[in-house]
Specification:
With about 110 residues, this protein is mostly beta strands. It has 2 helices and 6 strands, in the order E-E-E-E-E-E-H-H. The protein has one domain (about 1-55, about 65-105): Jelly Rolls (Sandwich), CATH 2.60.120. The protein is globular and about 40 Å long.
């Protein structure tokens, strides 16, 4: 369970799908619920996620994004994976991989 405390951002989720490329989901987290922004959302295990800042309402700047995560039954760092170029190319089309390359951790 993710909970927004302050700021605005765009979330990108990659949902694995059997026998096909991933489903890409994107939404805005923020305090303007009337415009469809989310204050809380759930991200199940096995889904890659990323986010980036959006300008605060009424501004062209961002003061950041503060989110907390409640993890059940508990977080184990050994279960955490970063997106790699190989995983990205397996999960999405070549065109999508170019657009989403910013998700990849390059060590």
């Amino acid at each position: 369970m993710h909970t927004l405390h302050s700021g605005r951002g765009r979330y990108v989720l990659l949902h694995p799908q059997e026998g096909t490329k991933s489903r890409i989901e994107t939404f805005v987290v923020g305090h303007d619920i009337a415009k469809g922004e989310k204050l809380q959302w759930i991200v199940d295990g096995g889904i890659f996620k990323a986010s980036y800042l959006l300008p605060d309402q009424g501004s062209s700047n961002s003061d950041g994004l503060l989110i907390s995560e409640t993890v059940v039954p508990g977080f184990e760092f050994s279960d955490h994976d970063f997106m790699t170029p190989q995983i990205l190319s397996e999960w999405v089309t070549e065109e999508q991989a170019k657009e989403l390359n910013w998700l990849v951790r390059n060590d």
